[in-house]
Every structure is written in structure tokens, then in C-alpha cells.
Amino acid sequence: MSSSASNCYFSRTGLLACLLGLPAAFLLAAESPQLLFERAAAALAASDYPEAEKGFQAVLQAVPGHVGALGNLGVVYSRTHRYARAVEIYQRALKSAPRDPGLLLNLGLAYVNQQQYARALPIFQKLPPTDQSRELLATCQIYTGNPEAAVKVLEALPRGAGTLYLLGLAYSRLKQPEKAKAALDEMLTAASPAQANFLTGKAEYEEGRFEAAADAFLKALAADRGFPGAHLELGKTYLSLRRNADAERELKLAIAQDASSGDAQYFLGGLLTLDGRYGDAAPHLEAARALNPDSWGAYFYLGRIRIGERKPAAAIPLLERAAKLNPSEPAVFYQLAQALKQAGRDDESRKALEKVRTLKSGKLSDEIEQLTGKTR
Asked: What's the start-to-end Cα distance of the chain, in Å?
């Protein structure tokens, strides 16, 4: 399965092209664009993202169309989970270099990281065929309802653990359980026991088989107590099983293992919010918002906390931000309506409720389903 990390984009040819039109006196300045670019590139390579961001922005102040600076600034935004901003920057760079495969790949990855598979799909379709781009194409085909096309792509790839996981998922969605099982069984021989059980759990979870998913994640942890992501995925699975105490335990273990996991912070904060423990929930949601600033959920649950505390003035901007990030979620507008009503803004509250009626089909989803994004 392909990594979601964006690839570095170091373009010296773009730098030279942009420098040609600059006055000679500017080029001789101590802080020339070339020097700024090289310094920012070194900061990016060292994972010093604040310094890299500052450096690439300085290059762009001097040379607004600098493709290399734009591409690498997009990488900075992606690696700091500001995917919406990364998309804007990559699109801006692609206006000058519309066929650049590195820019296209990173733009597609930014969409995938926001689960915007329909937008990523045409990008991976036009990329030169590599194992990574084909696997990402198949991922998008699975999640946009075309598992049959995904199977054709995946069957032509080397049968690594990630490919076999996706193949099992695609066959499962095609209602071909024997082929799905065969792919996942083959995966067991292509990966370590911990990784194989972890990926099996992911596949079971995606298909809503939560008991089987929990069993697989427990086996992954039995093989390797520190396997990355296993406590988080087990916690999410327990949430879907409504085993909230077990979910809380696993999510706390996930944070103890990696406090920079925005997902673990978010799911724990959301769970504590639903349990009415606002004081315990808020720090986790603030951490989630800082780690994943383009994620609507942290704003949503922070807004719910402020409503519960009867602080509508604080709740409204949080829920408005959540609505901007996820304008198709009726629960956001329902909570926004409650906050506006608390603030005495009745006309605006009625408009938000009308938006709920426009968006929802049937009843509002179960609160745990809102948190996890998975139905039982």
C-alpha cells in the first residue's frame, strides 16, 4: 500500500528559469532567491518545516511563479497536514508545469489524504505508470465504486503486502469472498505476522465486520505490542462496536505511543465529548486541530463543547469553520443552529436548520457513526 507522505520536489531548473528575468543587482544580493531556495530545501530535508515554509515563501515573494518553491511549499503543507492549502499550492505550480509528474503525484496524494478520491482519480489516470501511481489509482477506483477496474490494475502489480490488501478489499466489494480470502491469505506470507494481521483488520473494518477487525488488530498487537497504528485502529473498531471503555483505553495507548497522532487525539476527544467530559476532551481536540488543521471534526466537537458550556460566541466560529470544511454534513449545521439559537440569532438558526433538512436523508446519523465515519 502506497505511503501517503508527499515526495520532496527540488527543482533547480525552475529556479534558473525564474532568475533570468531578474535585475543583476538583485541577483547579487546576499539573500538571493537561489540562496533562499537552497536554504529552505535543506530545512525541508532536515524536517524543519517552519524554517522551510518561511524560506520557500521568501523565494515566492521575490519570484511569485517559482515552480520549485511552490512544489516544495506544497510538500511542507502536506507533511504538516494542511492538505487543502497544499492542493492550492500544487494547482498554482501546475499552471506553469501542467505535466510535471512530481507535482501531479503530490496533488493526488493531498486529495487522497482528505479522502477526496473522485478528485484524485483523474490525476493518477494521467500519471506515467509506476507501481506507486498504479496502486494509488486502484485505491481511488475502489473508493469511488469501481472495484472491478481496481482488480485489473492490482493483478498486474507485484504482489506485495499493500497490493494484496487492496486486492482483498476490491474482491470483497465485488462480493467474491473466496478471492478476497485468497488475497488476504497470500498477504500473510508476504508480510510479518503483525503487519499481515494489521492489514487484515483494516480490510475487515472497511467492510464493516468490526468483530473480525478487532480480532485481527488484537493478533497484530500480540505479535508486536508496539506495531504502529494498531492501538488507534483497535480503538476506532471498539468505538464502532460501542465498547467505549475499551476504545478509550486503546486510544490513550495510541497517544502514549505517538502523541503526534492527530487521529488518535481526535477520536479520544470526540469520545470524551460524547460522554460529557468536556474538560478532558478539549485538550485532545485542540491537539487534533493543531495536528490536522484541515480536519472538520475537531472544530465540530470543540463547538459542541462550547454549546454544552453555554458559550455560543465561542461555539459559532468553530462550527462555521467545520461547515466550511465539510459542507455536506447535516450534523454540523444542526449544532450550528443550536449555537445560533443560544446566541439569540433566531433567523440565522432557522436558516441553519433549513440546511439540515436540505442535506439529510432519513434521520441524522448515530453519534458514534458521525465520529468514526462508519456505519454498523
From this structure: 26
For 34-61, write each residue's pLDDT tens digit: 999 999 999 999 999 999 999 999 999 9
Residue type, 323: A
Given this chain, do its domains 115-191 and 271-376 carry the same CATH topology?
yes
Please report the pLDDT score of residue 75 as a whole number. 96
CATH number of 271-376: 1.25.40.10
Contact 234, 218 (CB under 8 A): yes
Are 169 and 203 in contact by the 8 Å Cβ rule? The answer is yes
Backbone angles phi, psi at 274, to 5 degrees: -65, -25
Residues of the chain with pLDDT under 70: 1-30, 361-366, 368, 370, 372-376
3-class state of residue 62 by DSSP: helix
| pLDDT computed for residue 198 by the predictor | 95
Cα–Cα distance, 330 to 349 (Å, whole number): 14
Q: Please enumerate, as own/partner, the contacts of 361-365 that have beta carbons within 8 Å and a separation of 24 or more.
A: 364/330, 364/331, 364/334, 365/331
Considering only the top CATH level, what class is 115-191? mainly alpha
User: Locate cell 461547515: which residue?
Assistant: 323
| Residues 9/102, Cβ–Cβ less than 8 Å | yes
> What pLDDT does 364 receive?
59
Amino acid 27: pLDDT:
43
What is the value of pTM for the model shown?
Answer: 0.78
For residues 297 and 318, is the Cβ–Cβ distance under 8 A? no
Q: Domain extents for the chain?
A: 1-114, 115-191, 271-376
How many residues are there in the chain? 376
Question: What does the pLDDT read at residue 7?
Answer: 67
Extract the C-alpha cell encoding 352: 441553519
Other residues' Cβ atoms within 10 Å of the Cβ of residue 50: 10
